[in-house]
Amino acid sequence: MNHSIIDSVMLAKMLNGGYQQLLSQKEEINNLNVFPIPDGDTGLNMGRTLQGGIETIKENTSFKDMMKAFSKGTLMSARGNSGVILSQFFRGFAKGMTDIDEMTIADFSNAMESGRNQAYSAVVNPVEGTMLTLMTDGAEILKSNSGSIEDFESLFDILIPELEASLERTPSLLEVLADAGVVDSGGAGLLAIFRGMKKALKGESIEVSEAEHTAPSSAAVSLLDENSEVEFGYCTEFILQLFSKKTEINRFDIYEFIEELTKLGDSIVAIRDEELVKVHIHTKTPEVPLAYAHKFGEFVTMKIENMTVQHNEIIAVDSESVLAKTTTNSAAPARPKKHQKFAVVTTCTGSGFKSLFEDFGADAVIDGGQTNNPSAEDFVNAFKTIDADYIVVLPNNSNIILTAEQAAKLYKDCDVRIIPTKSLAEGYSSLSLMDKYASDIDAFMNSMTYALNNVDTGLVSTATRDAEMDGVKIIKGEYVGILNKEIRISAINKLDAAVNLLKGYEDINDKDVLTVFYGKDVSEEEASVLEDLLCSEFPLLEIGIVPGLQDVYSFVMAIE
Questions:
Q1: Which class does domain 340-454 fall in?
Q2: Which fold does the domain 230-326 belong to in CATH?
Q3: Euclidean distance between CA atoms 275 and 196, whole angstroms
Q4: Rounded to an integer, what distance in angstroms lies between the CA atom of residue 295 and that of residue 252?
Q5: Are 170 and 129 in contact (CB under 8 A)?
Q6: Which of 94, 126, 260, 355 has a CA-to-CA distance to 16 between 20 and 30 Å?
Q7: What's the pLDDT tens digit per position in 262-279?
């Protein structure tokens, strides 16, 4: 039977279908990366953004309530430029559902147009050839045909081919895509979502590989036996719906709630959003914090993972710490600290960078960078740990700036400003010049920005595919040298890539300071050899070699 109208239950199934389809294509979307290096994360960012909305959906609720919760969930979970734009699209999509009991073809068409308009309004300089273009083409095709579309099956039969054609056109609209030989990754993610919505509408199943799910596999049980000790406890997460029969909701104090949780575990994050409380806690007795929280309401979702099993899995595969990646990106909101005039929140990847930024005076350092973008919720959590008149944010990644801006709009307790640093090198330079004794916010921000125009960023990473870009022939497995987003060199050896990148930099003789942060894949011996090579090649530069211990990039270079 075809659907001429759909109810909120069917829309919920369709949204979940879109999420499942996106998960099934996550790696494919990640690999639609302009640069041939392992920093593609669009599929991951869009998936985690959409997951935040899916987790809020309840069956048998009105369109208004469901989409209000779904929109807020995606807004808070948004990460990366693609995730922020997607969350804004669904925010606009939801605006058209405040007074409907069932959705018609015309309602869906209007929601598409509203979503498109909201997404464009969220981007300061909209670029065609991106997912924004697919939103426009999709909205326009429905608007021009809505009068003749009889059912939702026919709607998707018109919409999907138009989105497919729009995606294929993206390289003709954006030169960087054409040069890289790929279509827009965000557009591919949006198309996957609508394909999944169509499948759910038709009752088709969507296969998602086990690797795409976060639940532990059955094989993990073999890593825990009757003699094991649960050394690391349980990662426990839940969303609690406050109930008026159990507590006076207006008097519920999130800080008192957190204070009690601190007696029961650690790594705590607790956020209240109206009548919902989202909690993350590490504890050896998950039943205890659950029982405590149960006094105030009922659980909407719940997830408990044995971190000892996770730890044993890590040892078994000799991989990097998965445990660190499964924990939240930001600290729990504790009771306000001592009041200060200015505070700084920054992001970084790598324990070396984190320690350095904390030493420089950052008030909160959010774990996140390439392939691990923090969400808007992570920023809001960090803001809540600070008591200040002004909070200044250093995103340190061009793919995190929109998320930081969205978080700033969501947070109402103080004035949040963004300095749009696009790399860890820029963040390092900005923090090193910070003056917390500045007379006012303008002077404070000026202390951190006046030298940014003179900072260049050099990067060395491993090539993930053969390519030719910016006149450089790239071979998979070699090391690529990038200067300010332009590929300059490819070399067999990472040290050669770093040195030759700088040797080919036309303005190197006009610079005074070079700071090189080496990554996890670089040994201390290699770092020492590089320092000797650079000092020999550039005797007039003040050179520092620092352990950043970051992922993705062997070297991050701040050239000032």
A1: alpha beta
A2: Alpha-Beta Plaits (3.30.70)
A3: 31
A4: 12
A5: yes
A6: 126
A7: 888 876 767 776 788 878
Domain 456-559: CATH class, spelled out:
alpha beta
Closest CA to 399 of 429, 422, 367: 422
Nearest to 23 by CA among 248, 192, 264, 275: 192
> Which neighbouring-strand residues pair with 456?
559
Phi, psi of 373 (to 5 degrees): -70, 135
Buried b (16+ CB within 10 A) or exposed e, 172-205: eebeebeebebbbbbbbbbbbbbbbbbbbbeeee
Q: Is 364 strand, coil or helix?
A: strand
Domain positions in the chain are 8-208, 230-326, 340-454, 456-559
**H/E stretch holding 306:** strand 297-306
User: What is the number of other CB atoms lying within 10 angstroms of the CB of residue 68?
Assistant: 19
From CA 473, how far away is CA 466, in angstroms rounded? Answer: 8
Distance CA 486, CA 501 (A): 11
- Give tens-digit pLDDT for 12-57: 999 999 999 999 999 999 888 887 777 778 999 999 999 999 988 8
- Residue of 500, 482, 506 whose CA lies nearest to 556: 482
Cα gap 556→527, rounded to integer Å: 12
Using alpha carbons, select from 350, 353, 381 the residue that is nearest to residue 270.
Answer: 381
b/e string for 479-516 if b means 16 or more Cβ within 10 A? bbbbbeeebbbbbeebbbbbbbbbeebeebeebeebbb
pLDDT digits (tens, 9 = 90+) for 136-160: 999 999 999 978 999 999 999 999 9
Helix, strand or coil, per DSSP, at residue 315: helix
> The whole model's pTM is what?
0.72
Q: Are the CB atoms for 341 and 392 separated by under 8 Å? A: no
Question: If 0-12 CB within 10 Å is exposed, 13-18 middle and 19+ buried, where does residue 144 land?
Answer: exposed
> 217-220, long-range: CB within 8 Å, 24+ apart, which pairs?
220/309, 220/310, 220/312, 220/313
Residue 123 CA to its chain's centroid (Å)? 17
Q: At the fourth CATH level, which superfamily is domain 8-208?
A: DhaL domain (1.25.40.340)
Q: Which of 27, 37, 223, 4 is nearest to 105 (CA)?
A: 4
